Amino acid sequence: MKTIYKIVVVLICITNVLATQAQETNEEKRKQAEKNTSPFTLGHFSINEHSFYVLTVHVTDGTIKLDERAVLKEVGGKLPHQRGNFNIEVLNTEGRVISNYIIPDPFLVRSCEEGKEDNTFLKSGMIQIPFQKSPDISRLVLTKDKQTVGNLDLTALIKGKANEDKEKQDDDD
Q: Which residues are the signal sequence here (predicted)?
């Protein structure tokens, strides 16, 4: 009987020692995670998959005007997943479709004024159009319910954006 107690005590001690060694502390887990991941760099968002463009354009009399007030901005993060009836086709310099992106109608705005309908269509103002970042973008074709509402040539804006990025990179060096 005494040998059974001794064996049980020894097994309990061995189990406790093994269980204690198997448990990692938070510090050890953090060190292991840092060892297995690459360090974060600010260039992370310049990778196409980690950023997208937002085009801010003016609307006059219900039509999009791509003029000198248009702004193309690069936004860090992934392109938001939205659904709607407004299709954005991104075309490259050869005229091939790079991507399609569907968003809620940017012309449809909600009015908070008394006596007006809840939803009205924008006659004049600014809208923002998000789309996938790509180095060879030349045009955006905007369609709503299978009707083309805009055909925007972005070549000058993209080149201007590339020049700004290059100047910014030269300043950083």
A: 1-22
